[in-house]
Amino acid sequence: MTLTERRDMPTVPESALQQGPRGWFVYLVGADHRVTRHPVRPALMEDGRAAIASGLTAGQVVVVNGQYRLTDGARIAERKAGKPG
User: Fold this and answer.
1) Residue ranges of the domains in the chain?
2) How confident is residue 18, by pLDDT bands cut at 50, 70 and 90?
3) How far apart are CA 49 and CA 25, in angstroms?
C-alpha cells in the first residue's frame, strides 16, 4: 500500500547524512575537489536512502564514505563505487 508519493526530491544514501549540533548536513564536493559542509533537511529515510526536502538539488555530488574524517575545505580524491581504494 502506498500512503504518499514524493516527487522531485533528491535522494542520497543514508550514509551520506551526518548530524551535528546544528542539525543534519552532508559534505558537498566542489569542482576543485574540496568539500563543504552543507545543511540539509531530510524528509524520509527508508531502505538505506534519504529523501532530502531542502538543501540539495539534483546533480550535486555528496560524500558517501569516509566523511567522518572530513572538515570544511578538505581536498578529496573521488573513487567510483566498487573500485578498490
Assistant:
1) 11-67
2) very high
3) 15
DSSP-derived secondary structure letter, 16: G
CATH number of 11-67: 2.40.420.20
Q: What pairs with residue 39 in β-bridges?
A: 25
C-alpha cell at 22: 546544528
Distances (CA, A) of 24 to 16, 79, 82, 85: 10, 24, 27, 28
Taking the C-alpha atoms of residue 38 and residue 2, their distance in angstroms, rounded to an integer, is 31
The pLDDT of residue 6 is: 61
Enumerate the H helices of 1-85 as residue ranges: none
Res. 85: pLDDT tops 90:
no
- Do residues 26 and 56 lie in contact, with contact meaning Cβ atoms separated by under 8 Å? yes
**Residue of 54, 53, 22 whose CA lies nearest to 37:** 22
